[in-house]
Amino acid sequence: MQPFQKPLYYAGLRDIFAKRGPMGDESMHSFVKRRFGPDVAEYLIDPLVRGICAGDCREISVSFLLKELKETEMKSRSIMLSTAKKLFMKKKSEEKKSKPELARKAEHEGWSVWSLQGGLETLTDSMVDHLCNNGAEIKYDTKITSIELQGKKARIKMESWEEIETEQLISAIPAISLASLLKKSHPGVSKILQDIKCVTVGTVITTVLMRHGMTYLGGGGDSLSGSVVKTEVC
Ligand SMILES: Cc1cc2nc3c(=O)[nH]c(=O)nc-3n(C[C@H](O)[C@H](O)[C@H](O)COP(=O)(O)OP(=O)(O)OC[C@H]3O[C@@H](n4cnc5c(N)ncnc54)[C@H](O)[C@@H]3O)c2cc1C
């Protein structure tokens, strides 16, 4: 199957005979190349990582998405054999457990993709309803302009001039944004956050017309950029 040079089962065979890698960290690319061959690293993992996080698998740690596989490599010789063994054991133990009807249906009909009725936003909408019904207040479109940490309290100032004082603060804004907010009150922490690399990303979606139909190449999100993701015969 193009662009792979050999059938995919070669990758599995290679893993069975591959030697254990280094103990420490390594890139996702080097790990996959060593265990499953250069084609899997180039044509499967590279596009996958670019699609999921717009990152370069040659620079991203194996622990980002494949931590479990790296750990398996450290414990057993072959990932394929170890995974097959785990699946067999899991099936045996699951046979003993009674499953909910939906799980049984999914298994019986072989669902590989699922969604929520009304789309995935149903999930976040339900979370918002739950939080608000339990006394939480959510502020939208509100830029934080400064954070001051004083003793056990944090004073948060917003663009609207509003202020909040809190004993617990969880930040989910990018490190670079938090760095500037903490610059005055915590220059040390701010410096560490500032050193975390940050880049802007552009996504290009390419559509290529081919002889046998229309093929979409590229994309973002969970599509496999660089791989054929959909073919429609005209
Ligand atoms: C091209 C691309 C494709 C991706 N595809 C997928 C995918 O398919 N599946 C997947 O799971 N993940 C995907 N990701 C990764 C995913 O988008 C991120 O992991 C996720 O969005 C991170 O969420 P977050 O809330 O941590 O940060 P963000 O989504 O970056 O949210 C941070 C928020 O903080 C806000 N903010 C910043 N400064 C302030 C301030 N001073 N005051 C108030 N608010 C502030 C920003 O406006 C922003 O809304 C993709 C990423 C990229 C770049």
TrEMBL record:
Pathway: Porphyrin-containing compound metabolism; protoporphyrin-IX biosynthesis; protoporphyrin-IX from protoporphyrinogen-IX: step 1/1. Its EC number is 1.3.3.4. Binds 1 FAD per subunit. GO terms for molecular function: oxygen-dependent protoporphyrinogen oxidase activity. It is found in: Mitochondrion inner membrane. It catalyses: protoporphyrinogen IX + 3 O2 = protoporphyrin IX + 3 H2O2. It is an enzyme of class 1 (oxidoreductase). Residues 13-205 form the Amine oxidase domain. Its main location: mitochondrion. GO terms for cellular component: mitochondrial inner membrane. Its cofactor is FAD. InterPro entries: Amino_oxidase, FAD/NAD-bd_sf, Protoporphyrinogen_oxidase, Zeta_carotene_desat/Oxidored. Signal peptide: none annotated. Keywords: FAD, Flavoprotein, Heme biosynthesis, Oxidoreductase, Porphyrin biosynthesis. GO terms for biological process: protoporphyrinogen IX biosynthetic process. Pfam families: Amino_oxidase (PF01593). Catalyzes the 6-electron oxidation of protoporphyrinogen-IX to form protoporphyrin-IX. Belongs to the protoporphyrinogen/coproporphyrinogen oxidase family. Protoporphyrinogen oxidase subfamily. This is Protoporphyrinogen oxidase. It comes from Artemia franciscana.
